[in-house]
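---------- Forwarded message ----------

FYI, see the SIS domain-containing protein record below. Original note from H. follows.
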Amino acid sequence: MAGFYEYYLGWAGPARRAYSSGVALQLPQGYARAGEVVVCGMGGSGAAGDYLAALSARYGGLPVYVVKSAEPPAWVRGSLVYAVSFSGNTRETLSCASRAYRLGGLVVAVTTGGRLASWARSVGAPVALVEEAPAPRAGWPQLFYTLLGSLKAAGLIQVPESHVEESLQLLGERERAEAEAGELVAWLRESRGRLAVLAPEPYYPVAVRAVSELAENAKTSAVAMQVPEAGHNLLEALARDGDSRLLLIDPGEEPWSTLLHEFAGLARPASIHVARLQGGSPLSRMVWGTWLAGLASVRLALEEGLEPEPVKTIKAFRRVVEETSGWDAHS
């Protein structure tokens, strides 16, 4: 399983190629006139949509709505719809894509192939083929950067090119990333208590992604929280329990850093670890946090004697979905 870790460590290459591929994707005339973006995707595919939504809100661009189920919004007609499935065989995404198409959505498939690619070609929808990876979650850069490049080329998101380049260059900082991941893993192994990952609202997708990576790779449960919202509800329970451990996703921005640390002081957790996001832009900091979470989760699994790649229980649930949901397998 060391190869799985090495794949995460080498994200820079797939990320840069994916961005170039997304920029080169030729969308049909009229797609760029959409008023909003819908991303249909589960797991890491849906996470790519979460990041785009946060970045569009921060930098400017079309609003991004993420669907992590089988049913697109009723207003999808005329919307730019990215159907994202690494395997191309995710039942919920196939259903979301085909229903969006029938409702008049402008669909683009982002996938390695499978039924999604076949269906998209059959209805004349564009297909962005992405590179394979050892597991879909490890292929997050392929999905995210393909989407970002496509939206940038169409003028639908206002992330500066310099920020994109900085984020790609950061993925080359392997020694620093490994060192910080090692510190995080040491804390996770030494500390005890219920784990919560806390991020400022603009960086909340990083916390959600970290929780997912810990669950899939390290088979470790955690919850994602965001400030200021958690300070209006969850803080009361944390302060009473006193047995939690907090992983703070700190972007080094004010007022967010102060709010994070003040929240932690009021929560009185048993243990705290601060993951400081590297980079000079919101995009770069989000990418760094995502990379760090991936590396740390795989390394934690390996040090605990676990196999990070297999997800047998998740696959069992997917079979349940296919056998019982009635959602479209294809159109």
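H. also flagged this: The chain is about 50% helix and 15% strand.
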